[in-house]
Amino acid sequence: MKASFNLSMHRLSAAFWETMFEGVYEQLPAVLPAILANYERCEKFRTESDYDTGSISVAAGVCLYALCRHFQVDRVVEIGTFIGKSTSSMALALARNGPDGAIHTCDKDNGCFEPWQGFGCRVHSYPWKSSTEMLSELSRSPDKADLFFFDGRIQSEDIPLIARLAHPGTVFVFDDFEGTEKGVINVAALRSSMPQHILIEPCPTEILERYGIQGRSLSALLFNVKNLSITNQ
After folding, report:
1. Pair 194, 187: CB distance under 8 Å
2. 44, 63, 136, 204: most buried by Cβ count inside 10 Å?
3. In a domain, 2, yes or no
């Protein structure tokens, strides 16, 4: 007989995201307009930026929100702020999670982003700071990160600093996980040092459409398999 049972990463990823959206389904009628409003405010920073590049989609923002809510994230470390769309999406979730939420976010090419009043949680910006500079500063504190969001290239010097700032439940999220984009490169850079973590592919568009969310998300995850369990329901 064959005793093993194989589950593809694609099917596991779909089940993962289905669970994420089941948890925030009732919040979406309020969350989607809030994300769109924040994106409009963020776009005002684009003309002030020195390095104008792409930004995350609404779908990706909702995925970030769902992740932060499901895992009750309190502390985020983000690499690649740009105009703050991802920052604002996560801040919405952290504000609902509790009063102690904080996001630390850096951008080595820009200094334009300034959190507005009523942002939702504490946001510590590191304009004109590289990932290594911010991570080095953060690693001097005993505080750990519940979630990393990478929207900039990870440097080799960052890897031991990331490990120092992580705990067993830390979730690692990578934007632009497609083809040969930076998200794929970033996953490869970290995955070799995290053998206990599995890859969760970006949320399938059919799941997003089922929940009334247009567009695509290119955000993948590395998730500690020790935190994955089989339940009766």
Report:
1. no
2. 63
3. no
Enumerate helices (H) and strands (E) in the chain, giving the number of each.
8, 7
- How many domains, the chain? 1
The CA–CA distances, whole Å, from 187 to 10, 176, 208 equal: 16, 10, 23
Q: Tell me the one-letter amino acid at 161.
A: L
State pLDDT tens for residues 198-219: 999 999 999 999 999 999 999 9
Tokens of 179: 């083809």
Tell me if residue 168 falls in helix, strand or coil.
strand
- Domain CATH code at residue 51: 3.40.50.150
Q: Are 113 and 69 in contact (CB under 8 A)?
A: no
Residue 204 placed within a domain: yes
Q: Does residue 221 form part of some domain?
A: yes
The DSSP H or E segment spanning 97 is helix 85-97
The separation between the first and the last C-alpha atoms of the chain, rounded to the nearest angstrom, is 28
Q: Is 1 part of a structural domain of the chain?
A: no
Where is 79: in which H helix or E strand? strand 75-79
Domain range for residue 129?
9-227
- Sheet bearing 122-127, strands edge to edge: 122-127, 102-107, 75-79, 145-150, 166-174, 220-224, 197-200
What's the CA gap between 92 and 233, in Å, rounded?
A: 29
User: What pTM did the predictor assign?
Assistant: 0.96
